[in-house]
Write a structure and sequence with these properties.
The protein has 9 helices and 13 strands. By secondary structure, the chain is of the alpha/beta class. A 5-stranded mixed beta sheet has the order 5-1-6-13-7.
């Protein structure tokens, strides 16, 4: 009986250790080409391919978790997953709440999409996704009215249905949408806000942060990160 109890306890401990060694990768699944849900119902995109490679290089077992953007930082902090890998720009404000790894994309411009190239952005109603660097930027513009939405798709819909004069979002997100929709225009004006994109981790998870940073650096060094950046068209390659 004692042997059975000890064996059962050992199995439970091993299972617990195995579970603890599984890193849960939190993403939005709604921001192509960075991350999206494909026809098979799976997380796909630049960050899925990148994240899988980083986990392999860091010798970590990883699983993917989808979470709405507006609660993605609070749910990381509360332990619902272990990382954020969701097109999140590194900012000083976010860095006071969570830590970031090495950046895996360079800073990229934000751009406006509207129904007409003649739209007057001074005093315009600007749509942006909630809790983004674009929302914070638009909120500080004099005379501009910011309308925030939970998903990026809703910001585009707001322009199409007349709720907003323009959308402000990452150029890599809005440019393909404007190119495929004859009713939308990508404006020439661009805004340079925020830093590059990195993985977010809890402030207490220094070892995990360092493992992923080392893996990102190794991908930079051997050229595989730049190859993914070019493949998914998510910005300029690292020099």
């Amino acid at each position: 009986m004692n042997k059975l109890i000890l064996t059962t306890a050992a199995l439970a401990l091993a299972a617990g250790m195995s579970f603890a060694d599984t890193v849960r990768m939190g993403t939005e699944g709604a921001y192509p080409p960075y991350n999206f849900i494909n026809d098979a119902g799976e997380v796909d995109g630049f960050e899925r391919e990148l994240g899988d490679e980083l986990c392999e290089r860091a010798a970590l077992t990883c699983e993917w978790v989808v979470n709405d953007w507006d609660s993605i930082i609070p749910n990381l902090v509360s332990g619902n997953y272990d990382t954020i890998i969701a097109g999140m720009s590194v900012t000083a404000e976010r860095d006071t709440v969570i830590d970031f790894t090495e950046e895996y994309t360079l800073p990229e411009p934000s751009a406006y999409v509207a129904l007409s190239a003649d739209v007057n952005l001074s005093g315009a109603v600007i749509a942006a996704q909630v809790n983004t660097i674009q929302a914070a930027f638009a909120a500080a513009l004099p005379g501009v009215t910011l309308v925030e939405f939970a998903t990026p798709e809703e910001t585009i819909s707001a322009v199409r249905n007349g709720e907003a004069d323009a959308v402000l979002a990452d150029l890599n997100y809005v440019a393909p949408i404007a190119a495929e929709d004859a009713g939308l225009v990508l404006l020439d004006k661009q805004e340079f806000i925020g830093g590059g994109v990195g993985m977010g981790v809890r402030e207490s998870d220094n070892d995990l942060r360092d493992k992923f940073s080392a893996a990102i650096k190794s991908m930079k060094a051997d050229g595989t990160l730049n190859a993914l950046i070019v493949k998914w068209e998510v910005g300029q390659p690292f020099p």
